[in-house]
Amino acid sequence: MAEEFALQLEGVSKSFGGLQALAGVTLAVRPGERRALIGPNGAGKTTLFNLISGSLPVTAGAITLFGRDVTDAPAHIRAAEGLARTFQITNLFPDLTVMDNCLLAVQALTPTRFAMLRPVGAYAGLHASARATLDSVGLEGAGDAVVKNLSHGEQRQLEIALALAGRPRVLLLDEPTAGLSPAESRLMAGLLARLDPAMTVLMIEHDMDIALELSPHVTVLHYGRVIADGPRAEVRRDPQVREIYLGA
Amino acid sequence: MIRRRAVFAALVVGALAALGPVMPAYPLTLITQALIFGILAMSLDMLLGYTGLPSLGQAAYFGVAAYAVALLATERQVGLLGCAAAGIALAAVTAAVFGVIAIRARGTYFLMITLALGMVVWGLAFRWVSLTKGDNGVSGVPRPDLGGLSLSAPLPFFYFTLLVAAAAWALLGLLVVSPFGLGLKGIRGSESRMEALGYNVWLHKYVAFVLAGTFAGAAGVLWAYYNGFVGPTDVQLVTSVEALLMTALGGPGTLVGPAIGAGIIVFLKNFVSVYTKRWLLILGAVYIGVILFAPHGVVGALRGRRRLGAGRVPGG
Amino acid sequence: MRPDFWVVQTFNGLSYGALLFLLASGLSLIFGVMRIVNMAHGSYFMLGGYLGLTVALRTRSFPMAVLAATLAIALVGMGMERYFLRRLRGQDLGQVLMTIGFALIFQDLALLIWGGDPYNLPVPPALSGALRLGESVFPVYRVFILFVAVAVGLGLWLLLDRTRAGAMIRAAVDDGEMAQGVGINVPRISLAVFGLGAGLAALGGVIGAGFLGVYPGADFEVLPYAFVVVIVGGLGSLPGAMVGSLLVGLLDNFGKALFPELAYFTLFAPMALILAIRPTGLFGRG
């Protein structure tokens, strides 16, 4: 019996006016799989993430989440279906505290988000959940800091926290180590290695070592098309891939 | 922190209540007026300061409620409860209808659309003479009775207004620190992140918009009784602009700031116009001065925030 | 209803739309380049009318009035941009609030200088009177307004499409950062566009004064119309301003003639409809 794919893309294309950013992208990710999405700059990786998360509409093709067609669904519906993402360019709530940022993520898919007559502080369950999430990414004790005063590394950690807070089934990570020092990148890699094994993770990552270390499966994108897709050892040996990354 | 704010609020309300009997009639009526516009300014703050939606049409809901009260009280002799309920309900419905059109828009477009919608209400007030008496307005609105107690004199009406204003402040205060309120602040910070997290951003904005219109309606109800007269000037663009100025002057996103701003503007307006007719000129200059030198308003400046950074109209 | 009701109303709507085009094209351009919603735009219109009035009365020359009003207000606009608005670059809300402040100051100054009575701008005999076409009578002045709007529209199109300056303006509208990056002096463009927009609004004001008169409150009365035009047409788009102003002019005229009690509602309904389908206006880029 064919098991359900966590995420499935069928012939997905995206054009911006005359520019075709993605053409006929087809891929299927199994539940619990760890997959890296790599490719040179401009290959369309972040655009693909935007299509999957719903920030941008597809020009053609279909996107399925655990068997449910979400091609035309708005972003917040996809989030309710268990999809979460981080952003390559840090996208947090700069004037709010770290704790408030995390609370927003924790309450997002609960009815509490419409509660109007009690202060947020009264919801102990939300706070406990938020604190646990912050601890899991290494931000314990940072709750009261205002986000715009955090270091870049701490902001990247919070990016992950916000995505994890809702206990997603599918996690899209867009360059989690962007702008991090080698030491910080190591810490981030450690964090990512500890993610729930039941969670499906699709990761865009420029640091090839980390990408391949964390992802047994790899999809390679080039000029908007999938040119390789499979276990990492195979992709490493693929002549086209080698040419793009090593060749003239 | 919330307890500190609540205590502060209680102190202010208590102080005003205590001052009531010892104040001469004229300043008392000015404070009453300031409280009414304080409610209007706070309703705008929920949209502007907390959600990041700059509305230039709050006068529409203010005016709709005021007209409802004026017409029902003078033509049908409806009592306080009936008028207030009708006024606030009508304001809410108007906001619900206008919101469907306005909330689609972001930033700049939102500003212009709310302005245009406000003008629609003004136009109706001005032209639909058979209903609204046009330019003549509706006069002779009697002060109501509150369970046998007459509110005609300045002091009882002041207490009544203080009660309503305190209730509005309490409700809005709870709202902005509630999970829903946090959601509004999130929208102001980053709509895209909110969508990605799973919030239906349109719905949140819409609910905020309708709530703001409802509170503006409450202010309108009070205004009809306070002024005894409701006319197209109450729904004109300048009224919405004044509400915006009160919020900006006091400090957007602080709730108490806009109320203080309302007080400042009401007093300035009344005192300045004793000495010169050039009230608007001074108001305009004050506006420009505030933007240049205290962009976070009086309260913002008091809290030590002087950066010019976060003045961006979100989504625009 | 008169037998030529539709013809006359269409003509009136078109000529009013022509006036709105002068007003809205400037507003649209200003937004396109600088992303500012200029709340003082109605003030430029009104001040143009008042200044034109004074010059016309002093010099007894209509062309002088038009020229003087347009240039003077263009300068005022440039001054506003250069010395005040530029300081708030990037703060959209702050800029809007500041233009509101100026609008209030202008309104009061106008009241101070010209008083509270309405005035009519004296119009040269060549432009008074009416044309007869069959059963219908068309005031010459309204035809004149149409000509002016067409001329201005052509001029703007030529400027934007055929000149180097126009290309720079279009680049700045498209992507200000990129334009700056390729060496276009965006601050100078902003200044020029602001002056152009203000001048256009004033032109509309002085010409409009010939048949609408000039009076206190004209600024805030005409501003929503300008906004509806650019909302419907799309901010930053000249074709949008053209189509929008024609639509609004016609709708307003027919609305007032057929349903006088509903006033702005006849504007509101189509605006709502258009926004429901295209949130950034017919030609807008959002």
Overview of the structural elements:
The complex is a heterotrimer of chains A (248), B (316) and C (286). Chain A folds into 2 domains: 1-82 and 169-248, P-loop containing nucleotide triphosphate hydrolases (Rossmann fold, 3-Layer(aba) Sandwich), CATH 3.40.50; 95-167, no CATH class. Helices cover 34% and strands 24% of the residues of chain A. Chain A has helices spanning 45-53, 75-80, 98-107, 124-136, 152-164, 182-193, 208-214, 232-237, 239-246; strands spanning 7-16, 19-29, 34-38, 60-65, 68-69, 83-85, 170-174, 200-204, 217-222, 225-231. In chain A, the strands form 2 sheets. Chain A has a 6-stranded mixed β-sheet with strand order 6-7-8-3-9-10, sandwiched between helices. A 4-stranded antiparallel β-sheet of chain A has the order 2-1-4-5, covered by helices on one side. Chain A is globular. In chain A, 44% of the residues are buried. Chain B has a single domain, classed as ABC transporter involved in vitamin B12 uptake, BtuC (Orthogonal Bundle). The two termini of chain B are 33 Å apart. Chain B is globular and about 55 Å long. With 286 residues, chain C is mainly alpha-helical. Helices cover 74% and strands 3% of the residues of chain C. Chain C has helices at residues 5-34, 41-59, 62-83, 92-114, 140-162, 164-174, 176-181, 186-212, 218-233, 238-258, 265-277; strands spanning 130-133, 136-139. In chain C, strands 1-2 form a two-stranded antiparallel ribbon. Chains in contact: A-B, B-C. Chains B and C meet through helix 5, helix 11 and helix 13 of B and helix 4, helix 9 and helix 11 of C.
Beta-strand percentage range of chain C: under 5%
Main structural class of chain B: mainly alpha
CATH topology of chain B: ABC transporter involved in vitamin B12 uptake, BtuC
Number of strands of chain C: 2
Distance between the termini of chain B: 33 Å
Report the radius of gyration of chain B as a whole number of Å: 19 Å
Number of domains of chain B: 1
**How would a crystallographer describe the biggest sheet of chain C?**
2 strands, antiparallel
The coarse overall form of chain C would be globular
Shape of chain B: globular
Helix/sheet category of chain C = mainly alpha
Descriptive keywords:
heterotrimer, A: 248 residues, alpha/beta, Rossmann fold, 2 domains, 6-stranded mixed sheet, 4-stranded antiparallel sheet, 9 helices, 10 strands, C: 286 residues, mainly alpha, two-stranded antiparallel ribbon
